Every structure is written in C-alpha cells, then in structure tokens.
C-alpha cells in the first residue's frame, strides 16, 4: 500500500518536471539539437503606411521610405544573428565559418526581410582569418527568395479559393461578430483620433504596428495614444493577427504549408534526404503575419503582436535513447538579450516526440495544397516554374 502510493507520487513529480523544462538546461534534459528551423520577423522599420492624422506622415521622417528597415532594425538582427550563431555553433563548421553544406536561408521577396537576413547572417558568421577575401569584415551568404506572386510557403498570400471561402465564413460567424462587438468602443476611439475607418480588427493591428514603429524611432506619440498604446491595443491586435488562421481549415490552408515544410525538413534530416543531407539549419526571414500564422497554426500563439526581430526556433533534438524530440522556442522580443520562452503544442509535452507532433498537426498539414485550394488551373502553370 505504502509502496504503491510512493510510486504514484514519484510518477507525478517526474511528469511535472517534464512540463517545466529550463531553457538553459534543455540539452541535458532532452538531448542536443541536431537540426533547427528558424523563422524570424524582420527588424524595426518605418511605418508601412501612416494613418490619416499621423503627425509623422511627412516622408522626411523616413529617409529610406515607408516600410523600409531602419538602422536599429539592422542592428537588432546583427546582434540576434550573433546570438543564434553562438547557440547553434555546434551545427556550424569550425569557428562558425560559413559553408553552404550547413545552412540554407530563404526570405520573402521584400526589402526589409532580405536586409534583415543579410544583417542577421553578418552577425552569425563573423569573418575569420582564413575567410578573409577583400579587406572588409564581412562575407556574402546566399539568400534564396521567391517572388511574392509565386510564393506559396513564406509570403502566404498566394490565392486560394477554398481559403477565401473559409475566411468569409468565419467573418460571418457569431464568434467573429462577438469579437467585433467586444472591441467596438476601443475601435471607435481609435477611429475618431486616427482618422482611420473602423471596419474590422485590422485597425488594431495596423495602428499598433505604426505606433510601435514610431515609438521605436523615439518619436513622441500623440497624447490620445497614452491610454491605449501599447497594452490596450495589443490584445485586439493579437486577435487580428490570429484571425487569418482562426479555424482548423484556415490554419491548414494558410499556415499549413510552412508547418509542412518544417516537419518535412526534420524528417528528411533524419532520413538523410535533406538537400544537402549535411544541412543543419534552415532559416526563414519573414513577417509578423508569418510568425503569427505559424504559431497559431500549431496552436501555440500567445495572441500578441510579434515584436520586431522576434524569432521562432523549431529544434529537432536527439535523446540519449536515440529518439527524436522537438522543442519550439519563441524569442518574442526586439531586445536580443531577452531569453526565449519554451512553447507547448497542446496535447504534447514541451519536448514533443516528432511522431506525436506529426499526429497532432495532421489536421493542419495539407496533403496537396493546390488541389485543396481548388485552383489546379492557375497554379499548375506556376508550380512548374523553377
Ligand atoms: C552538423 O551538425 C553536426 C552536429 O550535430 C556536426 O558534426 C556537423 O559538422 C555539422 N555540419 C556542418 C556542415 O557543419
Ligand atoms: C532611442 O533612444 C534610445 C535611448 O536614448 C537610444 O538608445 C536609441 O538608439 C534611440 N533610437 C533611435 C532609433 O534613435
Ligand atoms: C512574450 O511571450 C510571453 C509568453 O506568451 C508573454 O507573456 C509576453 O508578454 C510576450 N512579450 C511580448 C513583448 O510580446
């Protein structure tokens, strides 16, 4: 009797330990990272589009133009890249030298994500004596990109009829109407002061984004923002980020392709079929919308706007028993010194066996995205392009 209850207590404490892994001791607790998918948002940028009453809409405030990365944005990615290089030094050649056998980088075809990736890689691969080539402390690293009109994975804007149908259905739902009702008063307040029409939750996302960009540039925000920014706006802004992937079907068609690619990468790493099989790191440079869609698709989104230079790490770890477990970490801060949070995919533990993760994510991974989107005609043509 005594023995049984003792064993029971031990079991419970072992389980609760698993539920609270420590970021610093993950390698010892789970096993080393043998492969990682990295997804980040670009760094600080100028507003995409100032709001009608914006005191900073004069383009002279933004010498590089709206939507462009700022020097702070470049710097934050340089420092983040250095952090990433140190964390995953064991997945890179000696002295963190650059080698195409170890890493593949892909960016959306947008100036700010391409430049963020460049700054990030400059921090990740500090030039060593043996790498010197032209008298400057920098070396080029290839960044792959696909034009927006052809990108079905990262940009996630590729037309999909079924997705549009599901989105429309959601927008008509009682759930969506309740959200709109809940935030109507705040929306009207913002609309009155900003001069922007309140037609949907996007107003929160857009204003949060513009005000944050201005704040990060040390511009003084108008006094009407004091009572609402950032805290009050960030909650409905988070919902706005989650709405494109609200239902399971929307997740599958919108966030699914990137989830499928990352899970596929991990399986190919294990099978030795990755191209090249020596690749240890796949890096994706994209947007707040990409980060939110990815996290919400795996049901691990915190419903807050992803900060500039926030980073998701999907790590494949090999346990002492030669099992493959996945840990998902989210470094959701522009400040590169802030440590990441360990995320849990609901239904699994923080260190989730890859096989279990695949079963859990099956509903949100499309078998054949083109077919499911019912767009065979227009997409067949494009998917044949190199
Ligand atoms: C990939 O990582 C392994 C350690 O898991 C390391 O031994 C190997 O050298 C790395 N590959 C490259 C190309 O750096
Ligand atoms: C804003 O001010 C802080 C504190 O003085 C400074 O560290 C930072 O570099 C400034 N940012 C910009 C974009 O000028
Ligand atoms: C980062 O994520 C954690 C956990 O979800 C949350 O508590 C925190 O407020 C987030 N920080 C930012 C800046 O979004």
From TrEMBL:
Protein family: Belongs to the histidine acid phosphatase family.
EC number(s) reported in the record: 3.1.3.2
Pfam families to which the protein is assigned, alphabetical: His_Phos_2
Signal sequence residues: 1-19
PROSITE patterns: HIS_ACID_PHOSPHAT_1 (PS00616), HIS_ACID_PHOSPHAT_2 (PS00778)
Species assigned in the record: Nesidiocoris tenuis
Keyword Glycoprotein part of the UniProt annotation: yes
Protein name: acid phosphatase
Catalytic activity: a phosphate monoester + H2O = an alcohol + phosphate
Superkingdom of source: Eukaryota
Keywords for this protein: Disulfide bond, Glycoprotein, Hydrolase, Signal
InterPro entries with a match to the protein in the record: Acid_Pase_AS, His_Pase_clade-2, His_PPase_superfam, Histidine_acid_phosphatase
């Amino acid at each position: 009797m005594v023995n049984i209850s003792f064993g029971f207590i031990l079991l419970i404490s072992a389980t609760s330990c698993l539920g609270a892994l420590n970021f610093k001791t993950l390698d010892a607790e789970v096993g080393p990272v043998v492969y990682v998918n990295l997804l980040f948002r670009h760094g600080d940028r100028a507003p995409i589009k100032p709001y009608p009453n914006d005191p900073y809409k004069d383009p002279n405030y933004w010498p590089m133009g709206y939507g462009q990365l700022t020097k702070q944005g470049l710097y934050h990615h340089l420092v983040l890249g250095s952090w990433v290089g140190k964390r995953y030094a064991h997945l890179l050649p000696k002295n963190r030298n650059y080698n195409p056998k170890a890493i593949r980088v892909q960016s959306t075809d947008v100036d700010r994500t391409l430049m963020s990736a460049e700054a990030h890689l400059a921090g990740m691969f500090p030039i060593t004596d043996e790498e010197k080539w032209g008298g400057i402390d920098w070396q080029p690293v290839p960044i792959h990109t696909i034009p927006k009109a052809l990108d079905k994975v990262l940009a996630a804007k590729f037309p999909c009829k079924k997705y549009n149908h599901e989105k429309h259905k959601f927008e008509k739902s009682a759930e969506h109407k309740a959200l709109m009702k809940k935030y109507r008063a705040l929306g009207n307040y913002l609309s009155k002061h900003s001069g922007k029409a309140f037609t949907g939750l996007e107003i929160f996302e857009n204003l949060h984004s513009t005000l944050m960009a201005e704040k990060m540039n040390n511009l003084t925000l108008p006094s009407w923002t004091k009572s609402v920014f950032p805290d009050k706006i960030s909650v409905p802004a988070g919902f706005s980020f989650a709405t494109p992937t609200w239902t399971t079907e929307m997740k599958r068609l919108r966030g699914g392709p990137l989830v499928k690619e990352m899970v596929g990468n991990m399986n190919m790493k294990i099978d030795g079929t990755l191209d090249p099989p020596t690749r240890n790191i796949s890096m994706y440079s994209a947007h707040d919308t990409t980060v939110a869609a990815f996290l919400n698709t795996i049901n691990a989104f915190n419903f807050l706007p992803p900060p500039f230079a926030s980073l998701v790490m999907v790590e494949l770890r090999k346990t002492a028993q030669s099992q493959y477990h996945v840990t998902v970490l989210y470094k959701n801060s522009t400040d590169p010194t802030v440590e990441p949070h360990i995320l849990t995919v609901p239904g699994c533990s923080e260190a989730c066996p890859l096989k279990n993760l695949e079963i859990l994510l099956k509903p949100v991974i499309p078998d054949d995205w083109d077919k499911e989107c019912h767009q065979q005609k227009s997409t067949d043509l494009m998917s044949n392009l190199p």
